[in-house]
Design a protein that fits this description.
The chain has six helices and five strands, in the order βαβββααβααα. With about 170 residues, the protein is α/β, with parallel strands linked by helices. It has one domain: Ribonuclease H-like superfamily/Ribonuclease H (Nucleotidyltransferase, domain 5, 2-Layer Sandwich), CATH 3.30.420.
């Protein structure tokens, strides 16, 4: 089961009503449940996805069609698969990461610490894109990869990539 813990802003954008929200259950998926927020990056609407268990994050942009309740879980799974593939993880690890995400449910955000991490990541993405000259000039893939290579206090000063490797039982990157 996949729980997307959406901020109030995302709930509003995708038309998620309070009666459609459930209480998230602990996930047996290696990367856990996911937090979702949206923010402006340049002149585009960006969605950030963050793993609750590893703080792994990535951003995707809204296309010509608005993001909907139906498209949000699809965005997450496609983005996660693409990110793990770009990192060079074997297909068996990618399959393990998305194995338990057969159905998507929506939940409220329920951790101030996770929301704090999510907001910090949004700020990092915005700063890095601006520092590299904006969306038209930056290496967005490089930014996503390097943000996930930052040590995080909430995961014992490991990087998100280290936490993902541990959760997926992969050998050390060293």
């Amino acid at each position: 089961m996949l729980f997307l813990k959406c901020t109030q802003q995302v709930q509003k954008v995708v038309g998620l009503r309070k009666e459609n929200l459930t209480s998230a259950e602990p996930s047996i998926a290696p990367l856990g449940n996911w937090y979702v927020n949206c923010f402006d990056l340049g002149r585009r609407k960006a969605y950030i996805f963050m793993s609750e268990a590893t703080l792994l994050s990535f951003i995707l942009f809204q296309g010509r069609k608005p993001v909907t309740l139906e498209s949000l879980p699809i965005m997450l799974l496609a983005g996660l698969e693409q990110l793990l593939r770009m990192k060079g993880l074997p297909q068996s690890a990618i399959d393990k990461a998305i194995k338990y995400h057969d159905a998507g449910l929506y939940a409220r955000t329920d951790s101030r610490a996770d929301l704090g991490s999510l907001n910090d990541l949004v700020n990092h993405y915005q700063w890095r894109v601006e520092d590299e000259g904006g969306l038209s000039r930056c290496d967005l893939t490089g930014i996503i990869m390097s943000v996930n290579d930052m040590p995080q206090r909430r995961i014992d000063w490991k990087t998100s990539w280290d936490a993902v490797q541990s959760k997926l039982c992969l050998p050390d990157r060293g």
